[in-house]
User: What shape does this take?
Amino acid sequence: MTSLLLLILAHVLGDFPFQSGQVLEQKGGNRRGGYLKHGLIHLLLLIVLTHPFFSGQLLLLWVLIPLFHVLLDLGKNLILSTKKHLFLPAFSLDQFLHLILIFILWQWFRLEACPSILDFYSSLLTPAGKELTEQIFMGFNLDHFLLAAIVYLYTLLGGSVLVRGVLDLKYLTLPESQAGGEETRQAGRYIGILERAIILTLVMAGAFTSIAFILAAKSVARYKELEKKDFAEYYIVGTLLSTLIAIVGGLVLYYFFSVIR
Assistant: This one.
């Protein structure tokens, strides 16, 4: 299970925090350089995260996963080049297919921790270091940590893409006088990320009633602007969708934590 979660984490990191705007723009223009950079980033992340499972089979996975990833992205962008209105279903289907692909490839290969690599890392610690490490990580569940990292990244960063895609729909677009500039959009993005991080954490803690406080505090800051009908609809849709994504992420974590021991 750990090897699968590491493969998925490498994918999520490569598609969100480690994918720059420049690479996205190059891929959107179907330039080979963008796809090459994207594939190399995924390869490097796979190497860094999964090298403790090193084997001939893992070497093959390092080739196949970035290759198929780039091919899927190419297909998605070819469709969006003529049908931009399909961005939301294309993005969702693309992520689903990436995860299915990783699962299919993972189950075909038997990945086991490489003893020589583990011994090398263990040799870097002195007896005192080993004792301290054991005390710090006593009871630590690596699979839970990896799963939490994946869900948080999808909820915070993938959620931003989904929320922006919905708010950019034709019937929700604000007039230029109300939309604000790029700085305003970026500020809204970071507020949304922070909002989802807090709500997801509250759901994991079982503090559902505290979510109302977060939404109320956000509404107070926008009180005057909510008097405008267009902005109120835009704000409510964005806030409710962001909250829904965070709650779903929290429930997914809660369920899998109870399944994965």
Observations:
- The mean pLDDT is 84.
- The two ends are 11 Å apart (CA to CA).
- Residues 144 and 258 are 10 Å apart (CA to CA).
- The first helix runs from residue 2 to 15.
